[in-house]
Design a protein that fits this description.
Layout (H helix, E strand, L loop, with lengths): L7 H7 L7 H68 L4 H13 L2 H26 L11 H13 L3
Helix pairs in contact: 2-3, 3-4
Length: 161
């Protein structure tokens, strides 16, 4: 190494660092303390504000969820009522129409089909019974005239048969 060149360690030793005075240190400490206090106050205010805002948001969210649940319930009720009305139109009794409408609204197709089978079996029995009641009596191969059918009905109504 050359004599004129100094090592970095020697250069650092030669640099004179001025020591801050107690007055400057106190001034810096006060400024730091004041800024920390202001930051703490802003944080506290922000937390309070956020809490109020979050509380309002939570209340609004809860109110919206309640309205949605009520709306969904009303829509479902209307759907079930419409289904029940349609089932009543096609001949279901009131209880079976209500049960079938509920099942349809719930997506329970097996129950819907089972209820349809019950209704169709009942209708089939009614039609068969009506067909047997309205069938004229057998004749011994001779044609039945309208007058004879009328006489049979009169006898039947009079209780003579």
């Amino acid at each position: 190494m050359e004599e004129n060149e100094k090592t970095p360690v020697e250069e650092i030793k030669e640099v004179k660092v001025e020591e801050p005075t107690n007055k400057e240190i106190d001034k810096l400490k006060q400024a730091l303390s004041k800024s920390n206090a202001e930051a703490a106050e802003y944080k506290r205010k922000l937390r309070e504000k956020m809490s109020e805002q979050e509380q309002r948001d939570a209340e609004a969210k809860e109110a919206a969820e309640n309205m949605k649940a009520e709306l969904d319930a009303l829509r479902r009720e209307r759907t079930v009522a419409n289904y029940k009305a349609e089932y009543l139109k096609i001949g279901y009794d009131a209880d079976l129409a209500a049960a079938t409408a509920e099942a349809l609204a719930n997506g329970e197709t097996e129950k819907v089909f089972a209820n349809q089978k019950v209704v169709f079996d009942n209708l089939k029995k009614q039609y068969e019974a009506n067909a047997l009641n309205n069938t004229p009596d057998l004749t011994a191969g001779k044609p039945v005239s309208e007058q004879e059918i009328y006489k049979e009905k009169l006898r039947h109504w009079a209780g003579l048969k």
